[in-house]
Structures are given as structure tokens and as C-alpha cells.
Amino acid sequence: MRVIEIAGGAGPAEALIPAERPDPVPGPGQILIRVHAAGVNRPDLLQRNGLYPPPPGASDLLGLEVAGEVAQLGDGVTRWAVGDRVCALLGGGGYAEQVVVDARHALPLPAEVDFVQAAGLPETVCTVFANVFEAGALKAGETLLVHGATSGIGVTAIRMAKAVGARVIATSRGAAKTQAALDLGADLSLDATAGDMTAAIRDFGGVDVVLDMLGADYAELNQAVLKPFGRWVVIATLTGAMAQIDLLKLMMKRIVLTGSTLRARPADEKARLIAAVEATVWPWLASGALRLPVEATFPLARAAEAHRRLEGGDHVGKIVLTA
Q: N vs C: which end of the chain shows fewer Cβ within 10 Å?
């Protein structure tokens, strides 16, 4: 099968090169997926640069989410049949024509969702669900603050929060992205390069949950705008990991500060999360209440271009590779 490897094990986007590997074979409890499309995510950039190694037992290839057709069943698999349209959450291996995955980590595609759209769902939807709805406990009528709102995670968080009946405050950089966040459904969209965001968020009424992908540079703002009993969930530290925290403010407001990663979770925990997503989020897809924008698609052989597009930071929504 054709795959994309990292020449030398790490490097710039140009290090992504086409290669061939033996076709994988599903083991017990696994399925083989013929990949039609694969999502591109920031953890892929980190791994390409040697900063985010795959967890034990995972493929060394990039790619944390795919969509395609079930091509083969491992022993003990009863839910799926050859030919089923699925998307799946992976520990790695998505930048390939075929991939094996724990059968419990796959989700069925609603008829209304094509492979390109579906390829951008598993990693982002599971991340948002685990952090905004489980750790952050966002409820209808509450307010979510999303930093980096036009990223793949950001647009997913906006759409999912609106689907559950929450209000959304979005922050991003530049007038174009600010407008894009409004178009996606944000109730208030702020340009991080202009004006006092803290005052604007306070005037809006503050927030109950913060989904923080930026880290250090936004720590002071988050503490200032969270309401009593607010939840601050950190999933990335793009502006730095060392932040100044006012513990007294956390105490007085009864703020919960937490964080998580997804890739290294045990297989059973991922299976639990996938089941929860299917029960809660998949009906939104089927009804049309949840639709996520795809910014651009690139053939698998042009993965380097896809990485450069993601690194450029001008995208709104997902970037997807097509097989």
C-alpha cells in the first residue's frame, strides 16, 4: 500500500515523502479500513517535528483519524461487515491507503456525510466531547469561550456548543477569522489583535467554560472572565506551557482547572468515549444540526502541502487528505 513517511524520522513539511509498505492485516478485535480520506491535525505537525511520538503499539505513520470502507474483519468482530462506511479514531497510521484499528474505535457514517467530511470528525469531535462536555460539563444556557476558534477543534467546539443550546464567545486573529467565527455560529467573536477582550467578555456576562488551546498568554484573561464554578480546560499550549496562576482567584471563584490529551488514552477508555460520542453527537450529524467546514483537501501524495497549509494558520475548519 502507499503511505506517507517522514524522511529521517523528523523534519520540515518537505520530509513527508511517499513510500510503500506491506498491506496491514487485522488482528483479533480489529478491522481493516480502506482509507478514502484522512484528517490532518496539529499533533501530526508535532510528530513530524519529533515532538510527539506515537504511543506504544501504535503505527509510526502520521494520521489520527480516517474515513473509508471496512475491507476485512479480524476474529471476534461482529458489529461491522465488509463494505460498511465508517470513520475511526486512530493512535496513528492514517496517512496510508489502508489502516487497521480497534473495531470499537470506529463509527458508522450517516448517509448525509461523505468520506471527506467524515475524515475530519473522529479526532476533533472526540476531543471536544471529552473536554467541553465531559471535563467542562457544558450545558444548555451556559457560555463557552473558545480560543483559536477557526481551527479544526475550534469550529467543532462552536458547532457542538450551539447544537446543545449554549452560547459561544470566540477569539481569533484578524478581521476575516473574526467574521468566520460569527458565520459558524459564535454569539460574540473577538479579534485578539484589536481591543480589550477581557472587558468585552465581561460585558457579555463572563463564561462558564473555557476551551484553551493557547496556554500561557491567555491564562490571565481566562481567570478574569470565568464565572464562579467555571471550568477551564487546557488541551494545548501553543503560546507556552508555563502560566501565571492566581490560586486565590481560583479559590474565591471555585474554578476547576483541568486538561487532557486523547491519543495516549487506553483502548477501553477510547471505546467508552466513542460510544458516548455515537450516542450524543451522531444524532446531530444525522439530523443536520452539526456540520463542520472543510477548508481544503489534498491528495495523499501532497501531504507536505497540507502540512504547510495547516502551519500557515489561515485555514477555517479542517484540512483533509484524500486517497
A: N
Q: Is the pTM of this model over 0.70?
A: yes
Cα separation, 126 vs 115, whole angstroms:
17
**Distance in angstroms (rounded) separating the CA atoms of residues 86 and 282:** 12
Q: Any idea how long the chain is?
A: 323
Classify the C-alpha dihedral 97-27-260-273 as positive or negative.
positive
- Return phi, psi of residue 283, to 5°: -60, -30
Question: Which three three-digit cell numbers place residue 161?
Answer: 456548543
Q: Where are the alpha helices (DSSP H) in 164-294?
A: 175-184, 197-204, 219-225, 247-253, 267-280, 282-287
β pairing state of 2-6 and 106-108: unpaired
Say if residue 216 is exposed, middle or buried (CB neighbours under 10 Å; 0-12, 13-18, 19+): middle
DSSP label of 265: S
- Grid coordinates given for 88: 475511526
Determine the Cα angle at 201 with ends 200 and 202, to 5°.
Answer: 95
Amino acid at 3: V
Predicted confidence (pLDDT) per residue in 277-309, tens digit: 999 999 999 898 888 899 999 999 999 999 999
How far is the C-alpha of 170 from the C-alpha of 46, rounded, in Å?
25
Q: Which three cell numbers stand for residue 249?
A: 482567584
Nearest of 24, 43, 27, 46 to residue 35 by alpha carbon: 24
